[in-house]
């Protein structure tokens, strides 16, 4: 057996021995014997690129809804640079897509409003004067948590409908924030940290729906299997960084996207190409995907932002790789869903479904130029026969 295959076989055995087991969540009930493997997806192979340079399965189409530093079509609003994390919210008989801007000092977040037919009817700013707004997460009460990605980064609670100023939420900790996901059953917010030795956190607000006060905790454990939580002593003001305040805190290599559904919080770590699954009902941690544990060539690399569909499918965006969004099915199959051509120095960001599940939004942060300032960013919409 070649050295690389031996290494993967060893890692696979180690992961399974470490406690990978069936979860109570809707996803992976049948597929947690080991992490997802390549296979044929529900939508078939990717077709030739369309006019926007996007390869999609049969029956799907794409359109550009915004470009950085240009007016959003049909509005007078100029779209922000470096579009990153995003989410959709219902709005009357239409919906809103919000997007962060991952640039220093003027980052913030913007929103695009659609009518019932999917036409763009407005675009506007919902957060100003913040820095490196990377990912974030939606709350059950209809706000968007925009996360700053630097050492003293803060989570801002923003209002997609407009008309209200964003609010700092320092009780969620000051660290290199990446993404957030709300668990309405346990009434907590999960948080990822983009550091090579970062942690995975949860915030327990004193009152659900009010993030002004509460307790920040960090995941403690030694690997897959049973884990616990321990309070972070000083999350708001610190001399010792948040991630180093608790002995035994589990380390994650570059925390990225975060998504909760059916008692399971899925989160990605780009440094080791993994999708983790935390079963909140049993306090158990396992691997849903690991590019080192794939038989053959890994279709999904550079894991980053993550979202899900009503069917239990996960959609995982790539930072680099083949500039794809990959689909991971409840049966444990990982396969490309779309690929963006000609954006080789960019990354895919902000995947999010419209409230009815018929449209998928995402961005290419740096576009065809690859310029680090993100002034060539593209934001797209994909429509088609999504499983529902």
TrEMBL record:
<dbReference type="InterPro" id="IPR006311">
    <property type="entry name" value="TAT_signal"/>
</dbReference>
<dbReference type="InterPro" id="IPR008557">
    <property type="entry name" value="PhoX"/>
</dbReference>
<protein>
    <submittedName>
        <fullName>Secreted PhoX family phosphatase</fullName>
    </submittedName>
</protein>
<dbReference type="Pfam" id="PF05787">
    <property type="entry name" value="PhoX"/>
</dbReference>
<dbReference type="InterPro" id="IPR011042">
    <property type="entry name" value="6-blade_b-propeller_TolB-like"/>
</dbReference>
């Amino acid at each position: 057996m070649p050295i690389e295959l031996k290494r993967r076989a060893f890692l696979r055995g180690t992961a399974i021995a470490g406690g990978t087991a069936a979860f109570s969540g809707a996803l992976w009930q049948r597929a947690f014997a080991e992490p997802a493997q390549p296979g044929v997806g529900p939508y078939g192979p990717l077709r030739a690129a369309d006019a926007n340079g996007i390869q999609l399965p049969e029956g799907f189409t794409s359109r550009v809804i915004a470009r950085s530093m240009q007016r959003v079509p049909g509005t007078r609003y100029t779209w922000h640079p470096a579009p990153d994390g995003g989410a959709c919210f219902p709005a009357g008989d239409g919906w809103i897509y919000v997007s962060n801007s991952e640039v220093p000092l003027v980052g913030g977040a913007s929103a695009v409003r659609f009518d019932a037919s999917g036409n763009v009817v407005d675009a506007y700013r919902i957060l100003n004067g913040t820095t490196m707004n990377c990912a974030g997460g939606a709350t059950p009460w209809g706000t968007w948590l925009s996360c700053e990605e630097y050492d003293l980064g803060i989570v801002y609670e923003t209002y997609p409908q407009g008309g209200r100023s964003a609010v700092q939420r320092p009780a969620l900790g000051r660290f290199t924030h990446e993404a957030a996901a709300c668990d309405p059953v346990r009434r907590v917010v999960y948080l990822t940290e983009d550091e090579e030795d970062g942690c995975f956190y949860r915030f327990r607000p004193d009152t659900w729906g009010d993030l002004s006060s509460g307790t920040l905790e960090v995941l403690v454990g030694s690997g897959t299997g049973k884990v616990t939580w321990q309070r972070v002593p000083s999350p708001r003001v610190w001399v010792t960084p948040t991630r180093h305040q608790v002995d035994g805190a589990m380390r994650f290599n570059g925390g990225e996207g975060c998504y909760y559904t059916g008692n399971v919080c899925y989160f990605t770590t780009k440094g080791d190409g993994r999708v983790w699954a935390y079963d909140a009902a049993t306090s158990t941690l396992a691997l849903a995907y690991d590019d080192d544990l794939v038989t053959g060539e890994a279709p999904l690399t550079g894991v980053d932002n993550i979202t899900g569909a009503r069917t239990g499918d996960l959609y995982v965006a790539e930072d680099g790789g083949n500039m794809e969004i990959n689909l991971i099915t409840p049966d444990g199959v990982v396969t490309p869903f779309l690929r963006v051509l000609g954006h080789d120095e960019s990354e895919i960001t902000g995947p999010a479904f419209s409230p009815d599940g018929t449209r998928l939004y995402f961005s290419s942060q740096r576009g065809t130029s690859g310029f680090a300032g993100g002034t060539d960013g593209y934001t797209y919409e994909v429509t088609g026969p999504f499983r529902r």
